[in-house]
Amino acid sequence: MRLFGQSHPMKKTAAILVSWLVGLQAADSAMTMWATNHGYTEVNPIVAPIADTWWLPPSKVLPALLVGMVVVGVMGRIPMVPKAINFGLAVASVFLAVVVASNVAELV
């Protein structure tokens, strides 16, 4: 089955990276909610007002999922974009993995 039009060999890699990024967003929001409900403070001023509410997970996961679907959909339609998309997704995933690991280290 072809998602979003024509298939591209790097589309599978992008889909895996998007899944990883969405999963990391979910983990980060769950840890943030748990931590703020147990006395920790959120240092991100954008997230702080909703850090201890159920608005946090959808506000982090849904945009990541939507952007992921769009960038995977662009694969193969514009030359050189697939490599740039996969590189950007990989960098974002590594950054967020470091944030999640830092949160885990802080909470343990």
Write up what this structure looks like.
This protein is mainly α. The protein has one domain. Helices cover about 70% and strands about 0% of the residues. The termini are far apart. About 20% of the residues are buried. The mean pLDDT is about 90.
SSE diagram, text form:
Blueprint: H1 11-37, H2 56-74, H3 81-107
Rounded mean pLDDT score: 88
Fraction in helix: 55-70%
Uncertain spans: none
- Number of domain modules: 1
N-end to C-end Cα span = 43 Å
Shape: elongated
Counting DSSP E segments of at least 2 residues, the number of strands comes to 0
Number of helices: 3
Structural class by secondary-structure content: mainly alpha
Element string (H = helix, E = strand): HHH
Estimated share of beta-strand residues? under 5%
Question: If you compute it from the alpha carbons, what radius of gyration comes out, rounded to the nearest whole angstrom?
Answer: 16 Å
